[in-house]
Every structure is written in structure tokens, then in C-alpha cells.
Design a protein that fits this description.
Length: about 250
């Protein structure tokens, strides 16, 4: 359903059933925070790493439960929202530049938390993955009638993403392209998305399937940039907590 149809429904008092993009953003942010707090802070406590039970050979502690279930929802939702943003933005160049800017601004907090130093070339933050994915789906659309160019550019971006060691790597880049290509089939999107990530991350496609196409309460420039800023800021906070020995 297109946005103008949704707006008309809302005006007539019949807002679309489901959850808005803002609710998806909140779910993704809380999932990300749970994952990173568990991975960087809670994992240091022996009692929270104690095995509670084993299923199919996999051992589960408080930390692994938090990381493997609520913590796995974030990335697929962020990828889905990226594709939605690409489809609806009025200025794709500005969208790409915003992602590039936050990728650069997030790099030092990312490096501090993951490597203990401002500079670390072994891995890059997830904004780079999202940026490469955005450029990839942009190429697919722009060169829709020139398949060779589209393939060359998307494969080139995949190689760059792999070489840069961007977070989630090739699978993350592939997930963005898959979500873009399978927009008309949420079931197929969920199956392919789960195959590219894991069945745990596939749970994220449940709230995604309930998306009603509406923006929700998070809108406007200030709210948008505040939402982006959560990513580098929470890395810096976690780094300071770890450094302080809390």
C-alpha cells in the first residue's frame, strides 16, 4: 500500500492495522542495546555466563539467551527500514551522505569499544554495511535496464564490503539486497533473510510483517538525527563503563 493511500485512510479515521516505522525503530534500538550490553558488559560476570540449559548441543546462559534472541532482532529491522527509507526519501544523495557521515562519526567509538584504541582497521561499524547496501539497491534500480552494469556495481560493492570487514559482512550486504528484491513477499523475504543470518534473526521478520507503511512518531530532522546518534553514543558509553571497571 502506498503512503498516499495510508494518509487517506488515516484522514478518514481508518488508520492501517499494524505497527509503524517508529515502532520498528524502537524495537531495533532496544534489541541492539540488549545485544551490546550483554556482549560487552554482562559477559564479564561469571554468574551470567553459567550454562542454564543445553538444546541441540547449544549451551545457553543469561548472556547467550539475551544475545541470541532479543539481541538478534536489530539488524534485519534496520536493513528493512533502510530499504523503506530508500523507497520513500525525496533525496537519495542526502540519505547516502547522512549514512556516510554517521559511519565516519561512529568509527572512533566503535574502535574504542571493540579494540581499545581510536584506530582499528580490522573491522568497521554497521553504518558502512548500510551505506554499501543503500548504494547497491540504488544501482539495481538505476541500472534496471542495464543488467551488466547493475551486476558489476553490486558485486563491486560486495567486494568492498568484504574487504573493509564491515559489520555483518557479505551476509549483511546480501540481506539488504534480498529485502529490496523481495518486497512483495514478506514470507519469502523472511525465509531468505533467515538463511542469510540465522533463524533467531529471522524472528525479526514477525514485527516486519506487521509494518503498516506509516512513519509514526519519529519524524523530522531532529528526531531522525537523534535516532542515528544513539549508535555512536551508546558505544562510547559502553566503552567508558568497561574502562571504569563497572
Amino acid at each position: 500500500m502506498e503512503r498516499n493511500e495510508l494518509s487517506e485512510q488515516k484522514h478518514n479515521g481508518t488508520a492501517a492495522f499494524g505497527i509503524s516505522g517508529s515502532v520498528l525503530k524502537v524495537i531495533a534500538v532496544f534489541s541492539m542495546l540488549i545485544d551490546h550490553v550483554a556482549g560487552h558488559i554482562l559477559s564479564r560476570y561469571e554468574s551470567l555466563n553459567k550454562v542454564l540449559f543445553t538444546v541441540a548441543g547449544t549451551k545457553y546462559s543469561v548472556v547467550t539467551i539475551l544475545r541470541n534472541f532479543p539481541g538478534r532482532l536489530a539488524f534485519p529491522i534496520f536493513c528493512f527500514l533502510l530499504v523503506e527509507g530508500f523507497r520513500h526519501t525525496r533525496n537519495r544523495t542526502k540519505y547516502a551522505l547522512n549514512l556516510a557521515a554517521f559511519a565516519l562519526w561512529s568509527e572512533i567509538p566503535w574502535n574504542l569499544l571493540h579494540g581499545g584504541a581510536p584506530w582499528n582497521y580490522k573491522s568497521q561499524n554497521v553504518f558502512f554495511t548500510l551505506l554499501f547496501g543503500l548504494l547497491g539497491i540504488w544501482a539495481l534500480e538505476y541500472f534496471e535496464k542495464e543488467k551488466r552494469k547493475a551486476i558489476l556495481i553490486t558485486v563491486g560493492l560486495l567486494l568492498i564490503s568484504s574487504y573493509a570487514h564491515a559489520d555483518y559482512g557479505v551476509k549483511g550486504y546480501g540481506l539488504i539486497l534480498a529485502i529490496y528484491a523481495l518486497q512483495k513477499s514478506k514470507l519469502l523475504m523472511a525465509l531468505v533473510g533467515s538463511a542469510l543470518t540465522s533463524w533467531r534473526a529471522g524472528i525479526a521478520f514477525i514485527p516486519i510483517s506487521l509494518y503498516n507503511g506509516e512513519r509514526g512518531f519519529i519524524h523530522g530532522e531532529v528526531m531522525k538525527y537523534a535516532f542515528y546518534a544513539i549508535y555512536p553514543v551508546h558505544f562510547l558509553i559502553l566503552y567508558l563503563i568497561k574502562r571504569g571497571g563497572i
